[in-house]
Amino acid sequence: MKTIQFEEKNEILEYVIPESWSQVSIGMYQEFMSKDVDKMNEHELLFHLVSTFCKIPQQKIVKFKKGDIDEIYKHVSQLALTQPKESLNLILEIDGVEYGFNSKLDDISFGEFTDLDTFLNDGFENLEKVMAILYRPIVDKDKKKFRVEQYDFNQCEKRFDVFKNKMSIDSAFGCLSFFLNLGTEYTMISTHYLKKQNKKKKSKQLNNHLEQNGVGMQSFTS
Predict the structure, then answer these.
(1) Residue 209 and residue 188 share a domain
(2) Is the N or C terminus of the chain more exposed, i.e. has fewer CB atoms within 10 Å?
């Protein structure tokens, strides 16, 4: 894990520079996706990427050494031009709790289905809610299989913030990719497919924008 330190008022602050999407939370990714990078100039883009992915307040960014910010920007720009992984994790551990993914979609309750469909219609805005429904605490487990707790929206709601701040976007993308690969008639699958196409388009726009501002992939390898 790559970090950078900053001293302010005799206090040493340490910030993490993510080197993969596994180090980026759902909340960080949502913040990244919330802005239209095509409308940003080079400096605005720098502030957005560095503050979003490293959680460095913008008022502190201006106090860093230029060389340090250039190095941070190099890493987060490279990351922003890639896609999160799309492999499904059946079991995740967050804050010491094991959560299991219920892949038996034919067995889900009507309430679970409608809640998923509703949240997926909002794209990435409610991604932590989607994940909290799909990943539930494991109540029984052996070497070959596990069982998650019965669906209860009130229980899911209690972990919205935990998933938003501590679940990686890699894990979330892997889960969503699973839906696409099922090839079923569920409304939520086709809905997310459209959202995913918008994400790919936005990624290409970011790539073009970075290259236009001289911070594309070529500038990192020269």
Answers:
(1) no
(2) C
Residues 6+ apart with CB under 8 A from 28: 52, 53, 55, 169
Question: pLDDT-based confidence at 216, cuts 50/70/90?
Answer: very low
Task: Read off the pTM.
Answer: 0.80
Q: Do 173 and 114 lie in a common domain?
A: yes
Distance of alpha carbon 50 from alpha carbon 71, whole angstroms: 10
What sign does the CA torsion over 16, 219, 209, 172 have? negative
pLDDT of residue 205: 52
177 by Cβ neighbours in 10 Å (0-12 / 13-18 / 19+) ranks as middle
For 216, the domain range is: 2-84+201-221
- Where are any strands of DSSP class E within the chain? 2-8, 11-17, 91-94, 97-101, 135-141, 146-148
Question: CB–CB of 5/174 below 8 Å?
Answer: no
- Helix then strand then coil, in percent of the chain rounded to 5, is 60, 15, 25
